[in-house]
Amino acid sequence: MATVTLRELTKKFGAAAAVDRLDLDIGDGEFVSLLGPSGCGKTTTLRLLAGFLQPDGGEIRVGQKVVSSPAVLIPPERRNMSMIFQSYAVWPHMTVFQNVAYGLKLKKLDGGEIAKKVERMLRLVHLDPLAGRYPGELSGGQQQRVALARALVVEPEILLLDEPLSNLDANLREEMRFEIRRLHEEFRITTVYVTHDQAEAMVTSDRIAVMHQGRIVQLGSPEEIFDRPKTRFVAEFIGKTNILRGMLESGRSVALGDGLKLRVLAGDGLAPGKEVFVCIRPHSLRLTPSAAEAEAGRGKGMNLFQGVIQRRVYFGDANDYIVELPAQRLNLRVVAPPTQKYEAGQKVFALADPEQCVLVGEE
Ligand code: ATP
Fold first, then answer.
1. Ligand 1 atom 3: the closest Cα is on which residue?
2. Gap between the terminal Cα atoms of the chain
3. Alpha helix (H) ranges present in 128-274?
4. Residue 356's beta-bridge partner residues?
5. Segment 69-127, tens digit of pLDDT
6. Ligand 1 atom 2: the closest Cα is on which residue?
7. Protein residues with CB under 6 Å of any ligand 1 atom
8. How far apart are the CA of 214 and the centre of ligand 1, in A?
9. pTM, 2 dp
């Protein structure tokens, strides 16, 4: 296993930098996702890591060894890395067993050892009953498992995955996220996983690197990224959120346009007197029709909004509301339990714990 260090890593296509002075330290045995919108540079970073591309600036180290820089490029086959692509890329003319055995044959292991390793790996990915089938006789999820088994069986130092689940249907994708995490816990191979799907990153990763325009804008555990986004971009990219614009008065108070003051979680490095944004997740707002309950909440230090239900959508496991706040001239999105039912036009109060009102900067 190995640590991976990216320093000032830069890759340009023409004048535009697809990866722009990117720094990242990945621990031995850690699972890190590169998460971001289309075109933010995730795949380019992964291709740089794999050695398919050479950087224009900066370097990549595995342990202490420089594997990529403008002057050095260790070829992909000498990096002891396995890469898995969107398109599985399993060989159609080989059985499941032969696909998984292929990399071990290249390493010139003897037949008995190959069979032992392949059989163990097929058991781990639950494919042992299908060892004799050809990929054309497998479902998409089973083919993706073959790709995983083939990548893991050679015991690489580093595993690189590029949107490996995007060709699967929604149910299978969800199941395979857990599968990938389970296999990671089994093998603890240092892993870099590219995705634009936040749920996938949250299930699989120890840490998530959110990318924007070729750079990492926030790096942290799934909880940190979701609960404590540092910028508006991160808050809006990871999950649904309400963003309220206001003026920071002191470390913990934001004035909205209409005189309403919000108590907020203290933010880092934001100066009073500046325009800021407050991120409130829809599920952290609590609705009540009762003025007494609303006042009691305010008495306990909660932020209180007064509004009117504009729209309700029932999702089975939740009611999703748009609540209009006439005084602030804005709408709040609120996710409430399925048993809490309000009709359009009904007056309600929305309460928010200051701990869940997170200050974020513009960039
Ligand atoms: P997606 O999620 O759509 O795959 P991504 O985050 O992986 O996006 P990259 O594929 O790394 O993004 O691309 C980053 C930027 O570099 C994009 O603007 C893309 O158009 C550009 N780019 C990538 N590869 C090339 C290439 N071979 N030649 C020119 N431009 C490229």
1. 38
2. 35
3. 140-153, 170-187, 198-204, 222-227, 232-237
4. none
5. 999 999 998 998 988 887 767 889 999 999 999 989 988 888 999 999 999 889 888 88
6. 38
7. 13, 18, 36, 38-44, 196
8. 10
9. 0.88
